[in-house]
Fold this protein.
Amino acid sequence: MRDAGLRIGWILVFLGISLLTHGRTDKYRCMWRDNPSTTMVIGWNQVSGSNPVLYYDTSDGGTQSSQYQFSQKPDRQNRFKGMHNHFVRLSGLQPNTRYYFIIVDTDGVSQRMAFQTAPDNPYERLSIIAGGDSRNYREARRNANKLVGKLRPHCVLFGGDMTGGDIERQWRGWFDDWQHTITSDGRLIPIVATRGNHEYSNQTLVELFDVPNSNVYYALTLGGSLLRVYTLNSLIACGGDQKTWLQKDLEQHQDVRWRTAQYHFAIRPHTRRKRERNDQLVNWASLFHKYQVNLVVESDAHCVKATYPVRPSRERGSDEGFIRDDERGTVYLGEGCWGAPLRPNDDNKNWTRYSGSFNQFKWIFVDWDGIEARTIRTDNADEVAAVQPDDIFSPPAGLDIWQPPQDEAVIRILPRDIPVAYSSQYVAQGRPMEVLDFSADVDGNGVSLNWQTRDEPSRSVLFKLQRAANGEDYQTIAHVHGQGIGKNQYSICDSGLEITQAQNLSYRLVHNLRPPSEGFPVIRNLALPTPEWQDYKRLFPDPRTGMLKVFYALNTPGDVRIRLIDTHQTAHSQSEYRNQRSGKFLKSIDMSEMPTGHYLLTIEADRKVIRQFQVHKKI
């Protein structure tokens, strides 16, 4: 009996040693201080152990530090809100790339986790979740967090009021709940944090999220020149230094395609229990209109709202300082509901699109051609499936996308292509840029389009070339970046057209500095097929490599054929896979040598179509 007791004792000793091989770290988070395409900040709480080192690589090395090429020690640490917070600021990363990492300390090794840098290509679509006010009800908060992990967005814009009292116990619980945002394969989702009135000082955001500005207002650009995100601080003066910074940054980033802002206090809350914010109307909303901020996300009121595009106004027809302006207005979304007590939506305006009162956040897609915003009810998180990692824009089964009464579930914001402020920044040597000698010539089965510019400014100019059949429904066929100061020559070939007598073909040029140029030459006797592909999801090949990636799944084994055809039904690529096993597959198609234009991609299994995509190859 004594020997048996000794054996049990040794087993317990060995078990204790094995448990110590796992590092005692928790409360993981990731953020951006700089370029989201090439940097990332990894934060955590160091429970025990010392001398932590973060090992990372683009390949998955598991929990073996020797399998990771790169390593870095924390750049900053603090003891705050009952946690020992550590932050590693990584830089020099590859855009749109998954990195795997572990944290090794004197107590052992953490679990293997991952993060992903943002794209640097303006033609790569972005998925963003935006919301705020998670402070009271942990079950509701966890539900929203779980949906973040299932929807796998590029980032979360969080509008403040994380906790109720800004105390240690609440913050430890908040970060424990935030772990539900980690995806099933261990990927952390970046948070862009905003200060709310329940964060009692700027220091809270600085110490817990390593924000890039001690005054907690800052801006980040995602997708190269696609989206500029402004995070503002409602808890300090919205005029003065903050307004000066905002105006200067907006002026300097008018070449970015889209601009969005987040902050805590709603300017015109949609509940009577919250007061109006006239200071933000005067100092911020006026700048949003002047410098074309397309979308704003507000929090604090704990209700649901979306507005029509509006601008500040006291003219006839306005309501509480705003008037609807579908052409040049800003859409405002909100207002919280990540777990804070819900309030009644009892203060609608004549420019309110819809309102409600339930737990929710906004799911926002951004690409070159527009912005889409959906309101997601979050209470049924456990019933929702996860998106496919390679198809994050298709709503998963069970996702509760709110359909407002007598309205659409999707809010769409389309490009303006005309700046509100035509300032001296758009002028070279005191003269506005001119577009000269726009011409088009038929060349075989294509059209050669040529134009010149004079007094092109030094800032980035973007030209959009559009085509229409019979002068109706212009479609963009190419984007061309300006060449810089002076007089420049441009030439684009619109190839692969069938030239007949059936239709007239018209071209026009739009650029981001001046109104759309109307009355450009109409090229007669050119026909362009118009296939009915509009209902199919759009895909874009990587403009750097020309590779098109496509995802599909097979429930049962079968013969698979993947076929890519153009608008004339000419096949450009065809692949066949005999008796392919069931499962999920990601295939690549080389489009680098294919002409620019529109294609249809069809995936068949046993001669039945299982997926179809509209493919756009741009210049």
In short: Confidence is low (pLDDT under 50) at residues 1-21, 418-431, 514-531. The first strand starts at residue 25 and ends at 31. The two ends are 81 Å apart (CA to CA). The CA atoms of residues 45 and 296 lie 32 Å apart.
